[in-house]
Write a structure and sequence with these properties.
Blueprint: H1 3-19, H2 22-29, H3 39-58, H4 62-87
Amino acid sequence: MSTILIESIGIVAGILGIMAWIPQLREVWVEGLHEGISLPTFWLVSTALVLWLVYGALIRSLSLIAANLAALACMLSLIVGVIRLRKAPA
């Protein structure tokens, strides 16, 4: 299988993975809802994404690097949004 095809599959998978977080981002940043969100889980997912990012860099996979950078940005945005909402006065 060609490298271009393999990377293309990775890019499509990365886009779909990032799209999966859009509803959660909308709930936190637009609707202001944060109940039921487990910050330890999001920190764990963020740690896994960092490790995937390092792995992608080590094997020089553009699709892994791009997808995990974007997913990590989503995770950190969610974490910041939840912390902001939980500290806001009621």
